Amino acid sequence: MDLGLAGKVAIVGGASQGLGLAIARALAREGARLVIWARRDPALADAASRLRDEFGAEVRPVLGDVRKAEDHERVVREARDGFGRIDILVNNDGAPPLIKLMDADDEAWERAVRQNFISAVRMARLCVPSMQAAGAGRIVNITALSVKAPIVGFGLSVATWAGLVGYAKTLSRELGPFGITVNTICPGRFDTELSQRSYRRQAEIENRPLAEVIAESSARIPLQRIGRPEELGAVVAFLVSAHASYLTGATIQVDGGALESLL
Predict the structure, then answer these.
(1) Pairing between strand 180-187 and 59-63?
(2) What values do phi and psi take at 258, rounded to 5?
(3) Of 73, 126, 134, 205, whose CB is crowded by the most CB atoms within 10 A?
(4) CA torsion, ordered 246, 247, 249, 250, to nearest 10 deg
């Protein structure tokens, strides 16, 4: 299926590894031109090199911190100056530290709000004018399954990403008349380095074999496995394609059926 992404310009955050890189790969495979950004080098430069080698993609890597306004402006300027337009925005980053809510001070909350909420608000504000000028656009926010099924210790992410879901739903109504869709994805467990570190830490704490911890986690998922990053990338590629032009304001879990809820 041709997704109609050839030549489109996409900004993808957190694209040096994990789900962000998987999303960038899915878009590059379809012929999109990319501005990828993240905090760490040489991981980001390596990711750009891989995308060029694998897909012949036009890629511009930009080092930046998702919590800094000046870095947001630099990323968007790179897309506009380098490619002349912005068609797709994928807001993606890591998550704040795990902490119980009563242990989180004002500074921890302010960092979480900047990272998970303000960053996406600011990026949309910077990118939407280009989308409006083109008569269409796609915005996708990557959060986590804990937005729909809160987990103890993940409160900073749950609260700030829940706010982002409300923002995205409202934004979808405001931008619909301009042909711009806004959707949010809540990934479950995926096989990324971040997940592997989490599993290893759990195995150490519980003094159990790593394979046992992973198998137990997988058994709680109806599909009996954790997801492959490229499976999440494929969902994003569809959401930003012409085929998803009537899908907006949605909050979609991609979790192998793990969420035990009707909503």
Answers:
(1) unpaired
(2) -70, -30
(3) 126
(4) 160
Average pLDDT in the 71-90 region?
98
Report CA torsion sign: 124, 43, 213, 153: negative
As a whole number of angstroms, the distance between CA 28 and CA 3 comes to: 12
* Residue appearing with tokens 């496995």: 225
Q: Return the structure tokens found at 170.
A: 């409202």
| pLDDT surpasses 90 at 243 | yes
Residue 201 pLDDT > 80, yes or no?
no
Domain boundaries defined on the chain: 9-188+228-254, 191-226
Q: Which two tokens stand for residue 124?
A: 């949309």
Model pTM?
A: 0.95
Helices marked H in 143-185 — which ranges? Answer: 155-175
CATH class of the domain defined by 9-188+228-254? alpha beta
Beta-carbon count within 10 A of 127 CB: 25
